[in-house]
Amino acid sequence: DRHRSRTPRPPAGIVSTVWILGAGQLGAMLSHAGQPLAVDVRPVPLDAQRAPDTAPEDIVSPEI
Q: Can you give the residue ranges of every domain in the chain?
């Protein structure tokens, strides 16, 4: 499939994690979109009782 051959892939063994503050529709859509790119999208509810344990290389982005 020509489309799949153009999909960028991270180097083997590297998994990117993107934290989304807000577990609504945008978080769900980003999680689904990240799967073929090997991006681990983790939506966090705004009313979560504690902050998630993140790594220095993780990306944290508020849902707007």
A: 14-47+57-64
